[in-house]
Write a structure and sequence with these properties.
By secondary structure, the protein is α+β, with helices and mostly antiparallel strands. It is built from ten helices and eight strands. The protein is 40% helix and 23% strand. The radius of gyration is 17 Å and the shape is globular.
Length: 245
């Protein structure tokens, strides 16, 4: 093992954790914040040649953005919009989500067994902020990680552009669960990646302390969202309980 590489990784993780006081994640509630999130998605996807130019310069999903089991979040660094990610909490086979549509043979067996899945989608970051803050990818993914804890999720499942699995595998230990498929509104093929959250949480948070969060922080981010999910699985009733146990 290259101890110098381990030391560099450890120092980077500590720097990310120390930056948290400058970072704020919140739900995109206002029309202004939602539009900013859709424009940031568009800019990021267009920059990566994942979609064709559009007149409105926004990436909005009519099937996924307005539904009660999905929440668009925005993350700021020093008060400036840095990233956005949509968080889905999928608790039943009939719950609408991108991964449930694209990879039904992967998700349906989990959901039929009463497993709860948190799915991040439409992750996007500001090019300017990403260049300024190499720590940004770790902050951008905190909302779905926090959601997994808040909603007592069994798995975090995501759709990843083919060939870009390395980050998720290296940082969180995601495994590739499928071959490449088409994905709504983008030109790239994606694969399904999954993480057993209960098995991986302590390991990831020990290596990257920035993924830790206080109950008050999670409550502030997801309080209104939790009410909309009560019909499927009320997180207030699930504290300390493993689904399917």
């Amino acid at each position: 093992m290259d101890m110098r590489a381990v030391d560099r990784s450890s120092r980077f993780a500590e720097r990310v954790a120390k930056m948290l006081e400058r970072v704020e994640s919140r739900p995109a509630v206002s029309a202004t914040e939602r539009e900013a999130a859709y424009r940031l998605r568009y800019d990021a996807y267009l920059r990566r040649n994942l979609l064709t130019p559009r007149v409105d310069e926004m990436l909005y999903d009519e099937r996924y953005d307005p539904i009660p089991s999905a929440l668009t979040t925005v993350t700021y660094i020093d008060g400036e919009l840095a990233s956005t990610v949509r968080v889905h909490v999928v608790a039943a086979p009939q719950t609408v989500s991108p991964a449930n549509d694209v990879f039904p043979e992967v998700l349906h067996p989990l959901l039929s067994s009463r497993r709860v899945v948190v799915e991040p989608s439409r992750l996007a970051a500001s090019a300017e902020m990403a260049a300024k803050f190499p720590e940004l990818p770790y902050f951008a993914l905190r909302p779905p990680w926090m959601a997994a804890q808040h909603f007592n999720a069994d798995f975090i499942v995501l759709s990843c552009a083919s060939g870009h699995e390395g980050f998720y595998r290296r940082v969180c230990g995601h495994e590739t669960w499928s071959g490449p498929r088409d994905y709504p509104q983008v030109s790239a093929k994606v694969v399904c990646m999954g993480l057993d959250f209960a098995a991986g949480r302590d390991r990831v948070e020990a290596r990257y302390p920035s993924y830790r969060s206080a109950p008050s922080e999670r409550e502030a981010l997801f309080a209104g969202f939790a009410v909309s999910l009560a019909g499927e699985r009320n997180p207030a009733d699930a504290q300390g309980e493993r689904v399917g146990a």
